[in-house]
Amino acid sequence: MAAAAVQRARTGRVELPPLPNQQLLVLRVSILTGVTMCLCAGFIAGRVTWRPETAPATASWRSATRAGAGPWGELEYIPIKIEPPKELLPQLGGGPARWFFEDRSPEQVAALLEGAGVEHRVVVGLSGTAELWSTTPEGTFLAPPVAFMMSISPAVRTSIYAELARSSRNRQQRDPIPVSPELVESLASRGLSDSTIAQFRSLLYGAGPWQLFADFSTASSLIADGGERVRFARAILRADSFVVRLKLDPKTDIDRILRYWDPTGHSAAERPLLDALTRVKGGADINVLAFLAAMPGRFLNRYPDPSDPVESHADCFWTALNFGAEHVDGHVDDPEYVAASLRTRYQPTGKPPTLGDLIVLLDGRGAPVHAAVYLADDLVFTKNGYGLLHPWTLMKMSTMVDLYRALVGSVRAVTVASVGAGTEAHAVSSATPR
After folding, report:
1. pLDDT in tens, 34-59
2. For the whole model, what pTM was predicted?
3. Which of 3, 57, 354, 361 is buried deepest, with most CB atoms within 10 A?
4. Would you give the DSSP letter of residue 392?
């Protein structure tokens, strides 16, 4: 692993590991006698679902939603919820909070806390406890007591955490976990105790309907029972996503579909399989991952590998800039590189998005706060945060915009596409990403 990390650092490129078989499965694979050898190959690869004309819909797909037809073909997608694997949970850790206030002295931090709405007597108490404070040339650290963290109101927490989010040292405040109303309502059914749920609720902030949670480590450290900690982590870190499949039947225009999903013609080898699928009685389906490169194929619907020095530090911008790559680069946690890439490699299209375009969200100052990749029919490939707590998922673009409005306030979406070599780009933004 050490040698691999050194090689990544030298080359700036990362060799992708072999894809686990289950990563490409489409929830249900049927292999029946009499299917042609071509179809069997697709079934074994986990990319194809055959649905006989007389068979009822399986339980796995009863919640599938049929998308509007377009140049991408006729899509169906099923909503899923993914949870972190048990192997990841020990890596997430837990412990007391340690806030860093960039370019602030202890006196300035005390004034900031009082200005955020913390009572004067509480600020005096914090200021008088020397062991809570430490200073560096870059700023001031404060180790807030748990009782203080639990006592502050959502409005006060919002103000303080907005300040903390200015520094990359405060990762949880910089990339909080989005919490939907549905998640909050579901906690009682996840086997969590009343005290754990109450502690979690007291740490939420934001105007809603989405709320934010930036104290995972602290909340985990307050749960004494190991089994409860695992249930809590899986409940809170659960993420919504989709599995998407393309429906094929005798009326399907394969040429049109390939022009959309494979504009460069690299998937010509798929043509015989697609033609065969259109001849299957009752129709067939194929996972859209069959048309996509290793990125996103090897990342979609999973959490980062904590042992990988690139994945474990990946965010939305790294994800978007590496879309379509067979070999991803090592430029993680590098805002200057992201800013330069958006400035020189991409430009606004002024058109409706198409496969591979980036959807960049800009805040009120025009700074990029998020980037995702458009696939089809309002679906985007996204990673909504930094590091291990945030998986790679599919999301409706409209939902993503609503989420980031809850995270950062006013945002606007800009569609950008890569420019060819030698073509001058028109920058989507000159600001460094937040």
Report:
1. 333 333 334 333 445 444 333 333 33
2. 0.77
3. 361
4. E
